[in-house]
Amino acid sequence: MSSNSNDQFPQVQGGGSLILAWQIKNKHVLVVGGGEVAAGRILNVLNADAHVTVVCPSSGLNPEVRHRIDNDEVTHVNRLFNPSDLETLPPSNGPPDMVLVAVDDPAASTQIWKLCKQHRIPANIADVPPECDFYFGSMHRDGPLQIMVSTNGKGPRLAASIRKWIGNQLPKGVGDAIERIGELRAKLRQIAPSPEEGPKRMRWMTRVSDAYSWDEMCGFTDEDMDNLLTFYSSNQVPHLDLLKGMRGGMSPEDIDIFDGSFGFSVVA
After folding, report:
1. Same-domain status, 148 and 220
2. Is 85 annotated as catalytic?
3. Does the reported pTM lie above 0.85?
4. Residue ranges of the chain with pLDDT lower than 70?
5. Distance from C-alpha of 124 to C-alpha of 15, rounded to nearest angstrom
6. 145 and 120 in one domain?
7. Which of 133, 168, 117, 124 is nearest to 147 (CA)?
8. Where does residue 165 fall: left (phi above 0), alpha (psi -120 to 50 degrees), or beta otherwise?
9. pLDDT digits over 28-80, tens only?
10. Mean pLDDT in the chain?
């Protein structure tokens, strides 16, 4: 081994978590408990388009959880947790894909955790990091943009403070800009759907993302995006002034703009 081999590769930093975007759309999530913590967990998984069943006596429901139940956003089972819930849980009468426990009973929480391990169902026991397959970090959300800050269960309050600081540093409208880029990618796949086009699509989208600011992308109209896509076949990205000049059906040849990215002058 060479003397400088330690400088060539990143050092392993143990003790972290593998932070992933878990796609739970249409998955079945069991929430045990109906208090404030449960309400936050329920909102998190509803935002990810999961199907949620709450197992909790009605007397233990806080106003937010009652609101979810009254508006048919979740299924409510009015009783304490039963071990059979990990096998046949309404409304699907099948096992849940995820279990979230938020009850003020450490012994009961540990028992549910052990049962989840037996059934190989990933679970999170609120405020008990050793009994969690995953953690809920502090989340910043702006449309399609999601940024999670995790302290691996060591400092939730600090994570929230860091998340707020990061959110304040982001440009306004960043979520809208990402939404427009997503729409552009979808339209590009329609005009160049073949797998062989994949590398070219990726390179062109990278150039587009680098060519315009967040504010500029937020201001893209549907016409702008359609006009922008006409430059894909020639693998070019037009200057913003040229793109705006094409509004109303104008062609590039009709616009008197010098576009440095092309290296030539487009004149009438």
Report:
1. no
2. no
3. no
4. 1-6, 256-268
5. 18
6. no
7. 168
8. alpha
9. 999 999 999 999 999 999 999 999 999 999 999 999 999 999 999 999 999 99
10. 89
Could you write out the three-class secondary structure of the chain?
Answer: CCCCHHHCCCCCCCCCCCCCCCCCCCCEEEEECCCHHHHHHHHHHHHCCCEEEEECCHHHCCHHHHHHHHCCCCEEECCCCCHHHHCCECCCCECCCEEEECCCCHHHHHHHHHHHHHHCCCEEECCCHHHECCCCCEEEEECCEEEEECCCCCCHHHHHHHHHHHHHHCCCCHHHHHHHHHHHHHHHHHHCCCHHHHHHHHHHHHHHHHHCCHHHHHCCCHHHHHHHHCCCCCCCCCCHHHHHHCCCCCCHHHCCEEECCCCEEECC
Does residue 29 contact residue 97 with C-beta atoms inside 8 Å?
A: yes
129 shares its domain with 227: no
163 and 181 assigned to the same domain: no
Place of tokens 């050793």: 130
255 and 182 in a single domain? The answer is: yes
| Residue 130 sits in the same domain as residue 34 | yes
Alpha-carbon span 258 to 252, nearest angstrom: 11
Number of domains in the chain: 3
Q: Which domain holds residue 236?
A: 174-266
pLDDT in tens, 172-181: 888 888 898 9
Catalytic member of 97, 105, 127, 133: 127
Evaluate whether residue 12 is within a structural domain: no
- Is residue 165 in a domain? yes
